[in-house]
Specification:
This protein is an alpha+beta fold. Helices cover 25% and strands 24% of the residues. A 7-stranded antiparallel beta sheet has the order 12-11-10-9-8-13-14. A 4-stranded antiparallel beta sheet has the order 1-7-2-3. Strand 13 and strand 14 form a beta hairpin.
Length: 290
Amino acid sequence: MSPLLRGWDPIMGMNARNKLIAEVNSKNAIRLVNNKYETKQALTDAGAPTSPTVRLVRTRREIKDIDWAAMPDSWAMKPNQGLGGSGIMLAAGRQDSHWRKVSGKPLSQNDITSHLARIIDGDFSPRLTDWALFEPLIHAHPALARMSFQGLPDIRVICVGDEPRLAMLRLPTKHSGGRANLHQRAIGAAVDLDTGRVTKARVGTQPIESHPDTGYPLIGAAVPHWTAVLDAASRCAAATGLRYLGADIVVDRTRGPLILEVNARPGLQIQNISGQGLIASIALDEGISR
């Protein structure tokens, strides 16, 4: 066990987490995962599944060079260094010369280019300027779509080196606006690492057994392609150089598990969802200090 962890309660607090990250996650590795494009390249080189980049737009001048007719009918546009899911635009299909949003409302080319300019101007990034990535739109695996209210559910896996230690599903709700954000009252559902099945779930501090909007039973529900999900998460450390990380993974209905992001500073809510302290999980062996 890392000396840093001795003397702490098995529940990890913010100070303990920050000290642990400072000890085991290098600045270069943190800098890498803050750049989505470079992270995707590193993951691909390590044989980890991630969504391909359809188009990279780095300057306002490059916006004029986009061949919109050659773009796929559905896509996700996101800031390269955006935080918390801000600045993402989704196109769910094409209608003549226009696209449509997931809601079905029209999305004009002017809407798209204006949003692109905002991304490049750094409106959604801690940097003064940023890049924009276009990726194929992800469609949730039917087994996960049934557990959610619209939106895209994902799986957060906490890893120590290449070993997954805790996992949870984040399931959109009507209250969360279809986003898998626990702070906006999405569902957090603990997933057993051995079986890939949900063992408990809650919205905020309230334990639940079924989805509050759909009534779909959650306890005992299985995450599809679970072995492949854990394999994807286990590849993130070698790809990025992080020793303690949170891997955010989605399961696409045709492409299977895909790594969306790798987090150098994963949040602590997973402890409340799973009923397990992160320090106890990390202290299972000497992995953190290898």
